[in-house]
Each structure stands twice: as C-alpha cells, then as structure tokens.
Amino acid sequence: MAPYFIHNLIPRRQACQEGRPLLVALRGITLLQYSMFFSGWIAWTVDAIDFFSVSLSITNLQHTFNLTDPADITSSITLTLLFRPIGAVIFGILSDRFGRKWPLVGNLLLVASLSLATSFTRTFHQFLAVRSLFGVAMGGIWGLAAATALENLPSEVHGLASGVLQQGYAIGYLVSAIVNLRLVPESSAGWRTMFWTSSSIAFFAAAFRSALPESRIFVFAKQAELTQGTSAGNKSKVFLHETWVMLKTHWILAIYSVLLMTGFNFLSHGSQDLYPTYLKVSKGFSDYHATVATIISNCGAVAGGTIAGLVSQYIGRRLTIILFIMLIGVFIPLWILPFTFSALSAGAFWIQFGVQGAWGVVPIQLSEISPPAFRATFPGVAYQLGNMISSASAQIEATGAHHLRKMVAQNGVLISVPDYATVQGILIGAVAAFVVFITIVGPE
Hints:
The chain has 23 helices and two strands. The chain is mostly helical.
C-alpha cells in the first residue's frame, strides 16, 4: 500500500484518460496553434540567451572592466534578477488588460534594444545600469510567453507543451554556449558578439509574434466583457478592483507560488550561473572544455524537461516534480567530486536532467493553479518574485567559495582555489529538500 501522501499527489482524474489520446490531440493542433506556441517558446529562449551570455562571459568581463573578483560581475546578475519583478507586474497587467500580442512584441523589442546596448557599454557602471534596465524587460517575458504558448492548446497536450516550452531556457543557454565556443574566439569584438546575437534573435521573435493574431482565449474574454456591457471608460478601474479582490481571495496561493518559485530559481541559478566558472577555477578546465561541459549539461536539461512534461500528464504535476528533484540528490556527488571531464560532464547532464525536468512542469502547474483572468500576471509575478528572492544565489556561491578554499594540483603545483564544489553541493542539496517539501504541501 503506497503512503497516503503519494495517493494525495496523484490526481484522481487524468486529462489524458478522460480526453483524446495524446497523439490524436497532437494531430488535431492547427498551424496557427503551433505558431502561437513557437512564438512563446522563442520569446522565452531569447530571455535565456541574453541572461547566460553574462554567466559565460564572467572571465572576459573581468578583463574588460579590470576587475579581480568574480563577485563583482555576479552583482550584475543579482541586479538583473532583482529588477525582473517590476517587469513582470508591468507587462503582466498590460497583457491581461490589453492582450497577449502587442505587450509581448513591445517587451521583445525592449529586450532586443537593451541587449544591443549591453554590447556597447564601456565602463562597469554603464554595464550595471544597462543590466538593471534589462532585468525590467526580461521580467515580462516568462508570464507572457507561457500564456501565449499554452492557453490556445488542447488540455491533452498541456503537460508535454509545458516541458518543451520551459526548455526554451535550456536551449537559450545552449545557443549562448555554442556562440561562446565558436563565434566569440573568432570575433575581434569578443564577448560583445554574444549580445549582438541575442539582440538579433529578439528582433526576429518580435517580428514573428507581430505577424500572428491575438490569442483566441483573450479574444473570447473580451467578447464576454462586451456582452456584459463593460464600457471602455471603466475597464481599467474594474480590472484593478478585480486584481485587488483576486489577491485578497487567493493570498495563500500567491504566497505558496512565490515560495515554490523561490526554491526553483535557487535550483536553476545555483546549478547554472557559476557552473563554467566552477569548472575553470576549481577543476582547472580550459574555456573550451568548460563550455563543452555546459553544452552537455544543457542537452540533459532539454531531455529532462520534455520527458517530465509528458510524464506529468499521466501521474500529475506534483509527483513528477518530486521524482525529478529526488534525482538531483542522487547525482550531486557525481556533479562535484570527480576531476575528469567525462565524469563531471555526466554529473552535469543528470543534474540538469533533474533540475530542468522539474522545471518543465512549472509553466503548466502555475497556469493551472492561477485565477483564470490573471494567467499572464499571476504566474509571471510569482515567477519573478521567486527570481528576486533567489537573486543573490550567484553571489552567495562566489562569496562562500572565496572563503571556503581548498588545495588542488594544477600543472604539478598545489595551489589554493575557491571551493565552488562544496558550496554548490550544500546549496543545491538544501534547496532540493525545500522544493520537495513545498511541492508536497501545495495544490495539484
């Protein structure tokens, strides 16, 4: 007999069992629905490309701005994450109020412009200022992208679609790593090339979304408003009142969602943001091998997210999250203890398989538990508030590793290096336990 909490985690009624088989539902999706999904997916991918362009360029940025401590550069990552909730609120409200299309187009154009501006910064203070503004622009992407991609699809494919959507994040990291591996060394502009690439993809994403119509679900909601006789003059007042009522009614759900997203963002940023630095500083890898290991880890992320999204359609969202988080705990030793490229790459693959596998369930989980009228604002704000709370993860690791050092042999000589391995292992282990707990006590 399975424990009670396992029964509680498995939904009593499954969408795939009640509705059409998955393959039948997939064949029934129209070209427009696929296009809407792709527009949301590529928007989320653009977000990740730019964000990880900084993580992969920490050493080069230190040289450009004459900085000696990696924690100085990670402060820009912290600022980006701190300002993202502002963008989530602004663009989420605009999307729920005026539609999915033009707020996302405007958001992507702002991302493209600020990404381009990042490449032209000449001082560290300019860099920090642009990255802070970029945080506002990035903050709006996730909620709008998830609403655009998922709300027009049939419910039978929501789990799989959620996993594929969330792996836009891993694909973005993968694109950044490939650009850093192949294009940056060949370009006289160096790390700035990464932001030119990010900006061009963001402009393409904005153009693609502008060529598509408004979300069908949003159009139906607006038609219902007209039927009810809601006038243009009082729409904003009514919307703000309904937002306040939603927060008063669902405040426990809001707190739960923020706590869940805090744990998830600590997991992803704690395992990814300083991973290339960890391999180079603590394990003595070259830039090339550190980047290749990053690419391997993101292959694990893509596989995990897609599989987990599909699995969640059958066993439920929460149980899927718990199983993939437990997988992380199993592979932490392989992720931090070895010194060979093959072993560490294998550990990175399976850690990200678990991290992004659990993450693959998040878009549809947040969308399904959100109040229906706020499916751009509620998930986006919860996600970005979690980002804000976890924004210091890179600095926590950098500072902790700086003070917790160990001796390693490099080129036959013992030297003292920051112990990123121990710090990351402790952080990820503790956060994984927290996410399992908060998932168990939460709603399906």
